Amino acid sequence: MTDVGPTNKTVAKPWHPYLVLAAALVLPGIGHVLAGKPVKGLQFAFFILLFGWLTTQIAPPEATFIGRHAGGVFVWCLSVLDAYRLARLRWETWRRG
Q: What are the respective helix, strand and coil percentages of the chain, to the nearest 5?
């Protein structure tokens, strides 16, 4: 029988989900970094910029700021929800041992 490693590993305490949520609301992608998924955070930040730029090219000039950047705002909202979900899953997994 092979030894797969120690059974009582100490896992570092993850960031609280509400802190991750606040960080994700302030800076796109940072919530994923705090939740332990930095590559995913970088991908979300890239697509926020891409879709924000794309909708500025398509939207009419009389549209509001949110209307001109609707694609980026939409991806940002998805990013915030995903970062919070990841943080909540990590937090509950850590809390339950």
A: 70, 0, 30
pTM for this predicted structure? 0.82
**Structural domain that includes position 49:** 17-96
pLDDT (tens, 9 = 90+) of the chain, 97 residues, equals: 454 544 445 678 999 999 999 999 999 999 999 999 999 999 999 999 999 999 999 999 899 999 999 999 999 999 999 999 999 999 999 999 8
**What 3-state DSSP class applies to 70?**
helix
> Rounded to an integer, what distance in angstroms lies between the CA atom of residue 81 and that of residue 88?
11
Question: How many structural domains are present in the chain?
Answer: 1
Q: Is 77 among the domain residues?
A: yes
Enter the tokens of residue 8. Answer: 């009582």
- Rounded CA-CA distance 85/20 in Å is 10
